[in-house]
Amino acid sequence: MLKAKGNLVVGQSGGPTAVINCSLVGVIEESRSRSEIGSVLGLVNGVQGALNETFIDLGSQPRTVLDGLLQTPASALGSCRLKLAPPDYERIYQVFRAHNVRYFLYIGGNDSMDTALQVEALARLKNYDLQVIGIPKTIDNDLECTHHCPGYGSAARYIAHTVLDTAADLRAMRTFMQVYVLEVMGRNAGWLAAAASLANRPNKDLPLVLCLPEEPFDPARFLARVAEVQKAFGCVLVVASQGIRVASDEAAPNSGSAIATDSFGHKIGFGVGNYLTGLIRAELGFTCRWDMPGSIQRASMACVSNVDQMEAREVGRAAVRRVAEGKSGYMVTLERSPDSPYECTTSIAKLSDVANRERLLPSEFIGTFGVTPAFRAYAEPLLGASLPGHACLEPLLIPSKEPR
Predict the structure, then answer these.
(1) Does 251 have pLDDT greater than 80?
(2) Nearest C-alpha neighbor of 73 from the set 236, 268, 239, 297
(3) Candidate from 224-228, 259-263, 269-273 with smallest mean pLDDT
(4) Strand pairing category for 245-247 and 366-367
(5) Above 90 in pLDDT, residue 355?
(6) Of the listed 88, 111, 140, 308, which one is catalytic?
(7) What is the average pLDDT score of the chain?
């Protein structure tokens, strides 16, 4: 048996997902079968755990805990959004060296891949033998080089399920509520808002109007579309990404949005639903309300995708296999087989090709205030099990017997 080369450290970063702990479980499971890996340590609150030298012993966790993590949303290790300075990377290097860390896996999105890239670069500069691999996760689905991101399928399922149920509620109330606006997450990419279209069942179109950040928002065109759909269906369900813009770098005007900026300089806007509701009321006179699901979009285990759970676990396992092979400076990716039925395999891409980049919804997926069939073919398998089928009463009215 090979002597253990060193210890493995894994951390979780950024906004959690419903399946991020499945990736963590995959890492733990695969590490236990690798003789070259000694202890398996978890960073408490991402790279903050490295700076503070706070770890959790993951290798000794009982099977019951691992099984429970597979059904637990959010980051079990804790998370952070922290842009590191050069002295921070030096501190991480010193901590890793003190604990004989030779494998570093980081579960996160665009910015986390940059952190992993910088850690790997410093290790090479120091001539320190450290293998670094990124493990993808984000409900925004905006990482480059991968077919999709673990976490997206479950969030997309939540949005589709919510839209399906909300459309039924809206139909019932259309005599006194004409428009409902749902504001969903998505900073610059419309993948999550586009998932609302997956609520449409064959031959049963919903009164949907989608607003995606990839398309500049035109108030006049939007109002015309809302009026058109309301005339056809008697009600309208608007699903808007919180990142919709009237120009390449402007939030929707007069939205009253609360704009926050994280440590990486990303602007996070809220209030698009309020803006659109006000616009519809003022210009069309429709009765209208809006909601914003908030963090439940990324944390709902009630709507978790079984496909997403399986794939998230597998990318964790694949990351361990790659570092054990000596690979470093890569992120695990998912690649869809062109054959039917749906199947994805894992591969790798350079961290430098992923870090600080965003993959927006491609033009071939975008329709007029909606999406194309190509998007549905791409995204529907990621939802896992079929959504529930709603029934509509047939219009078999009993003839009136009273004279009018």
Answers:
(1) no
(2) 297
(3) 259-263
(4) unpaired
(5) yes
(6) 140
(7) 91
Q: At 201, is the pLDDT very low, low, confident or very high (cuts 50, 70, 90)? A: confident
147-156, 170-179, 307-316, 385-394, range with the lowest pLDDT: 385-394
Cα–Cα distance between 109 and 300 in angstroms, integer?
19
Assigned token pair, 53: 């030298």
pTM summary value: 0.92
SS3 66: helix
Q: Please, which residues have CB within 8 angstroms of residue 383's CB and are 6 or more apart in sequence?
A: 153, 156, 157, 160, 198, 305, 307
Fold (topology level) of 6-138+304-353 = Rossmann fold (3.40.50)
Rounded CA-CA distance 150/67 in Å is 18
What DSSP designation does 197 have?
Answer: G
Element (H, E) at 311: helix 306-324
Does the fold of domain 152-301+361-383 match that of domain 6-138+304-353? yes
Q: Residue 149: name the closest of 365, 367, 354 by CA.
A: 354
In the annotation, is 129 catalytic? Answer: no
DSSP code per residue over 329-381: SEEEEEEE-SSSS--EEEEEEEGGGTTT---PPPGGGEETTEE-HHHHHHHGG
Burial 331-342 (b: 16+ CB within 10 A, else e): bbbbeeeeeeee
CATH of span 152-301+361-383 = 3.40.50.460
The Cα 123–Cα 102 span in angstroms is 10
Identify the CA nearest to 138 among candidates 160, 114, 107. Answer: 107
State the number of CA atoms in the 13 A half-sphere of 238 facing the CB: 33
**How far apart, in Å, are the Cα atoms of 89 and each of 12, 20, 246, 377?**
17, 25, 39, 42
CA distance 298 to 141: 12
Domain chopping of the chain, boundaries: 6-138+304-353, 152-301+361-383
- Report the C-alpha gap between 27 and 318 in whole angstroms: 8
Among 47-51, 340-344, 396-400, the range scoring the smallest mean pLDDT is: 396-400
Q: What is the mean pLDDT of residues 369-385?
A: 96
* Distance (Å, whole) CA 388 – CA 180: 21
Residue 31 CB neighbour total at 10 angstroms:
26
DSSP state of 394: -
